[in-house]
Structure formats: C-alpha cells, structure tokens
Write a structure and sequence with these properties.
mainly alpha, Growth Hormone, Chain: A, 3 domains, 19 helices, MFS_trans_sf, membrane, antibiotic resistance, MFS_dom, MFS
C-alpha cells in the first residue's frame, strides 16, 4: 500500500513556525536594550528591572516541561495555538501598561505562552515532514531562534529610538498572529497519550520554589540579607525544592528524572551548560545599562555594540562541532570555560575612561568561550544517556539552564546593586534625592541632571563599573572552577569510528540555537520536542558515576 503523499502546505506551515520562533528568539534579547529606557520612563528600580526580566524566565523554567507534556497528551497543535494566544495577550498587555508591577505581570503571562510554544513548536515537525525532510525543517526552526538573538538588540534599538518603550512588545503581535493562523489552518494534530502525566503538585513545588529563591536574591540588597522577608524566602525555597526532589525521585514516571544527575557525564556537562547560561543571562541584563548610561549610546547603538559577543557565540558554535569530533568534548568544554574566565577577568579591568574597543575585545572573547563550553557540553550530556531517556534528559537539561538564567540575572544583578549602593557618594544630597540616586544608575543620572551635579553622575558611573567588575570576577572564578572539574572528571567519549564519521550533521543540541539565552531550546526530538543524543558521539558508559 502506497504511503500518502506529503501535504504541500507543510512548507507554508514551516514558514509561519519559523516566524513565530524568530519572534520568540529576539524577544529573549530585545528587552535588554529597553531596560534603561524603562527605568527612566516607568521610574523602575534595579530590583523591579530584575523582576521584569526574571518573571518571564521563572514562569518559563517552571512550566516548560509540564506544558510540553500537556501537548503530548491533549494535542500539540491545540496547545501550540493556546501558547501563541497567551503570548500575544501578554505582549499586548505589556505594551499597554504603565507601571513596573503590571509589566512584570505581563512578562509572566508571556513566559507561560513561551513555555507552551518552544517545545511544542519543535515537536509538531515529525507529523508534517518525513525522515528525509525533517532535518531541514528542524534546522530552519532552531536556526530562527538563534538568529533572533542578535536581531533583538537591533530591532529593539530601532523601535526605542523612534517610539515609546511599549513598542518592543507590540512588534510581537503580527508575527504571533501569523503563527496562530498557520497552526489553525495548516498544522495536523498530533499527540502521544503514553507520555507521563502532568503532576500538578510537582509543578507547584517547582514554580513556587524557584520564585521564592529568585525573590530572596533580588530583594536581598534592598531589604537586607538578614531581613525576615529574605530569610523566609530562602527557607521556603529550600523547603519546596526539597519536596520537589523527594517527590520526583519516588515517582514511577517523573517529569524531571533527577536520577540522571547521579551520572558524572550528565552532571558535569549540565553544570557547564548551566554556568554558561548563568553568565550570559547576567551580562545581557547588565551590559545595556552600562553602554547606555555610562557610555552615552542610544538604544540602537547599544544593540550594535552587543554584536561582537553574539558574533563570537555563533561563529564558535559552528566551529566547536569539528573540534569535538577530533578531540572529544572534555578538552573543548574545559578550554571554553578557561577562555570565558579570561574574558571575564579582562572585562573586570574596564575603567570609566576606556573606549569601546576594549569592551568589544573582551565581549568577542566571551562569546567564543560561551559557545565552546555550552554547545559541546549540551551535546555530550545528551549523548551520554540512552535513547529512551532522551526526552527526560533534555527536559531536565533545559529546565536547569533556565534556572541558571533566572538565578544569573537575580544574583549578578543583586551583586551590582549591592556594590553600586555601597560605593555611590551621596554626601550632601537631600534624603529623597539620595534615595532616588541609590535606586538605579538611571535615577542617579536624573538627579544629577536636575540638580546640576556632574560629580554625582561621575560617582554613579564609577560605582556601577565597580559593580560590573565584581560580577565579572565572580563569573571568572566560577568558570575557572568548573573548567578544573571538567578537565579532571569529565568523561571524554571519542568520535564514532567509521568512514561516515565526518559526514554526520551536528545534532540539534549542538546548533547555535543551543545558545538561545535564558529561554532557548536545546533542540528537537524526544517526546516533548526536546533534544535526543548526538549521533556523532559514542556514549561513555564506563566510569560515569552510575
């Protein structure tokens, strides 16, 4: 019996999915260049800006896996349409709000939509494309997410130079609406009723526990690290995350297979990938404020000046694959982490009078370090587990990466805020003006301009750069410690033997989309559209800590 011919509309559907993923891709970075503008126009403090970014990531990290399972059980197209609709409504609400609290709420709604869209946007592809075409479709969708990263600052900069800050949310509406229409009219429905059931209690534990952890880190500088609110948040986070761990370890079919962390090859590679996301997310949060407020660039100019890091990321992501085939992942991951350490320590030497050339240099080096550490680490983590564990393994890897991104923004932002507040000289200022200056760098510049106090602006710039230096030293130390662990204990599976070794395509996990910032996917396949193990690696079963 002849197989049914493929649906000719599948390429139109793929185009709409690519447009939707591109929107989600540049939404990862478009907000960063808008933070100084939002701080000024919404009178948002540093901790509120942290929440505006982190609300999206916390919701996404907590709900991504259960959202993918909902699609598997109740229909991927149906849940994909629901996710795009939720993302559209969140974007519209974000554009129309006028207070930091409402923007945080809108970003939370957008995170819920993204949690549905990203895994399901990949998992619908097998139902549309045969084996011969599926690789091209997967590459198109994942590359569109990666391409959105460098486009985000540029698109955001253009919009902010001509319109108000809410335009960065409105840009999502037409492309998301196109994706909804394509899903409704072009995508076939598919599901996997055998997938694990969503556990509401585990979902609540993860969402509330991660939220409490981020709350404590963000609120620590303002409320005091020993305040009841902060200590209570940390205690609640520890209680809920411990309960999540116990529940998942005893579940027959857990949503997060935490037993995988007992395997050294998976644990250390996941640690390296999570550290990369931690540092990248924190820098993308802090750098735009430094470039706009201390260096005086406009939003579009800031987007341009972030391109060296993005360029280094994308170039090294491609270059890492042949290196891993030749040497194995261990030396590539460890070297990437050492390069990242060097870039961070180099960046920590930035002074108020240094030009952009020095910044471009260390950003480019940092981009190379990120990619050489993260891409092989993610690929090796998934290549070291059995095929039937690929879905749960990639789900756990993605979740931990998003947690790393959320904690990176919270912790590194709080380090900068603590250092900035401690080193800002507000001597002689009236109490309200001093408080406004301590709230944020933008607030200090506004006070300095209003009171004609150039010395206050200079003190604020120097204090912020001091905070950045502290952050970069911490990042460098963390990268070096992880590099030592990788070099000493990371298994090093050799490339698969045979004449076709060099002809393998890199696994989706090793594509540039693996670096899609705080909420990028790790790749397709698996029960919820997540990455499977790389075909270019022979899993190292020996001495992996099992």
């Amino acid at each position: 019996m002849n197989a049914a011919p493929p649906d000719p509309r599948r390429w139109w559907a793929l185009g709409a999915l690519v447009a939707s993923m591109l929107t989600l891709g540049f939404d990862l970075t478009i907000l960063n260049v808008a933070l100084p503008t939002m701080a000024a126009q919404l009178e948002a403090s540093t901790d509120q800006l942290q929440w505006i970014v982190d609300a999206y990531i916390v919701v996404f990290a907590a709900l991504m896996l259960p959202a993918g399972l909902l699609g598997d059980r109740f229909g991927r197209r149906r849940m994909l349409v629901a996710g795009l609709a939720v993302f559209l409504l969140g974007s519209l609400a974000g554009a129309l709000t006028d207070t930091p609290g409402l923007v945080i709420a809108a970003r939370s709604v957008m995170g819920l939509g993204a949690a549905l869209v990203i895994p399901l946007g990949l998992s619908v592809l097998p139902s549309m494309f045969g084996e011969e075409e599926r690789g091209k479709a997967v590459a198109a969708v994942t590359a569109s997410m990666a391409a959105g990263m460098p486009l985000g600052p540029l698109v955001g900069g253009l919009l902010l130079d001509h319109y108000w800050w809410g335009s960065i949310f409105l840009i999502n509406l037409p492309m998301t609406a196109l994706g909804i229409a394509a899903c409704l009219f072009l995508l076939p429905e598919s599901r996997d009723p055998s997938s694990p059931k969503v556990d509401p209690l585990s979902t609540a534990y993860s969402a509330l526990g991660l939220g409490a952890l981020v709350f404590g880190i963000i609120e620590g500088p303002g409320r005091g690290w020993t305040s009841g609110w902060v200590l209570g948040a940390f205690a609640l986070a520890a209680l809920l995350l411990t309960a999540l761990t116990v529940r998942e370890r005893h579940a027959v079919r857990p949503m997060l297979d935490l037993a995988l962390l007992g395997r050294r090859v998976f644990l250390l590679n996941t640690l390296a990938a999570t550290l990369g996301t931690f540092v990248l997310s924190g820098l993308l949060f802090l750098l735009p404020t430094r470039l706009q407020e201390t260096d005086g660039h406009d939003a579009f100019g800031t987007g341009l000046r972030l391109l060296p890091m993005m360029g280094g990321l994308l170039v090294a992501a491609r270059a890492s694959t042949p290196l891993v085939r030749r040497l194995g992942p261990r030396p590539v991951v460890a070297t990437g982490l050492v390069v990242l350490c060097f870039a961070a320590l180099l960046g920590s030497r930035t002074g108020p009078g240094d030009g952009y050339g020095f910044t471009a240099l260390w950003l480019t080096i940092a981009g190379f370090g990120f990619a050489f550490a993260m891409v092989p680490a993610m690929d090796a983590a998934l290549g070291g587990i059995d095929a039937d564990e690929a879905g749960s393994g990639s789900g756990l890897l993605m979740t931990l990466r998003q947690v790393g991104g959320a904690v990176g923004i919270a912790l590194l932002g709080s380090l900068v805020a603590d250092t900035y507040t401690g080193r800002l000289d507000t001597t002689g200022l009236p109490a309200p003006a001093a408080e406004a200056a301590r709230e944020s760098l933008g607030g200090a510049h506004a006070v300095a301009e209003r009171l004609d106090l150039p010395a206050l602006a200079a003190s604020a710039d120097a204090a912020y750069l001091d905070g950045m230096s502290v952050v970069l030293v911490v990042c460098g130390a963390a990268a070096l410690a992880t590099a030592v662990m990788a070099a000493l204990w990371l298994p090093n599976p050799r490339p698969a033997a045979g004449p076709d070794t060099d002809s393998h395509e890199p696994s989706p996990a090793a594509s540039p989309s693996s670096l899609s910032g705080p909420s990028g996917p790790s790749g397709p396949s698996g029960p919820s559209g997540l990455s499977g193990p790389s075909p270019a690696m022979v899993p190292a079963k020996e001495d992996d800590g099992q």
